[in-house]
Design brief:
The protein is built from 11 helices and 9 strands. It is globular and about 65 Å long. It has helices at residues 18-26, 46-57, 72-82, 101-112, 149-157, 188-199, 228-248, 251-274, 278-294, 299-313, 317-329, and strands at residues 5-11, 33-40, 62-67, 87-90, 96-97, 116-125, 132-136, 168-171, 205-217. Strands 1, 2, 3, 4, 5, 6, 7, 8 and 9 form a 9-stranded mixed sheet that branches. The chain is α/β, with parallel strands linked by helices. Strand 2, helix 2 (46-57) and strand 3 form a beta-alpha-beta unit. The termini are far apart.
Amino acid sequence: MNPVVSVIVPVYNSEKFLPHLLNDIHEQLFDSVEFLLIDDGSVDNSAMIIEQFVSDFSEKRIKLIKQKNGGVSRARNTGLDSAKGQYVIFADSDDRFGPDFVSGYVIKIQDHQSDMEFFSALKVDDSETHDVVGKIDYSPIASNSPVSVAKMISNFANLEAWGYPFGYISRKELWTNVRFNPNIKYQEDVLALFQVWTSFPEMKIFVNKELYYFYVQHANSALHSMSVADYWQFVLVDDQILQMVEERFLPQLVQQLEALKASSLMSVVATSALLNDHKNYDKARKEFLKSYHRASFSRKVLLRRTVQFVILKINLRPLVKVVYKKLYAE
C-alpha cells in the first residue's frame, strides 16, 4: 500500500545534522509516510549514518536514495520522481521539526480537501539550544476560508507569504509537469512554487498559523558572500515569474510583483557599488529606475523605494556605498 504522504529531504555532507534529523523522523506520530532521503553524492559519512539508523531502529519509513552530486534542485526532483504519496512535503536535512510535523500538515489538507496548505515556522539559531531568533509568520493572513492563487500571489508580493518549500504540503499531482531548475542556485524554490500556482490558477489553498517546523539559521549565511552574479539571478527569477503571472492574471498582480524585482535590482546596485563594479552598477541602476515606475509598492516599502529612486536618479553612488556598507556589516 502506498503511503499517504512523501517527505523529500535532500542530503549532502550532512553527517553533523543527521542524528537530529533522523531522531525527529523516528519520533513522527504519523505512520503512513515515506521519508525520501536523497543522498546527493555526499563525500562524508551521511549515507552510512542513515543506513545504520534504519537498521538499528527498523525505521521502515525511511528510504535512502543515492545519486551523483547535482545540487539541491536535482535531489528534490529525484524525490518527486520517486514519491508514491498522495501528498508531498519538502524538508531540509539541517533543520528540525516536532513529532506532529507530518500529521499536522496532513490533517489540515485532508480536512480542508485542499490542494495546498501553508504553515508558519520558527527560525532558530544553529546552537544546540536552538534559541528562537525569528518567525515565518502566517497568522496575519491565516483563515478558515480558502485563499485563491491570485490572493497568494498578492500576499507574496506584499511580503506576507514566502516560497520556503518546508512551509507547505501539496497534492503530488500538482508537480506532474513542474520540477526545480537545477541551473538556478537562488530562488529556485520560489520559481517552482510559481510554476505550480500558474499551472493551476483555480487551486484551493488554505493558510494556517500553526507551526511544526524549525528553520535553522546558520552563522555562515550566504547573505554576506553573495556575488553580483548571484543577485542578478534573483532578477532572472523575478522576470520569469512576472512573465508567468502576466500570461494568466490581472495586470495589478504584475505591478505588485514588479516591486519585488525592484528590491532585487537594488541588491545588485548595492553589491556592485561596494565592489566598484561600475558596469553592473550602471546596468542595475537603469533597470531599477524603470522598474520603480512599473511597480505598485505596499505602504511599508514605498518610502524606502522612493528614497532609493531619488538617490539613484541623481546617481549618488558614494552615498549608496556608505549606507550599504553599514547594512552589510551588521
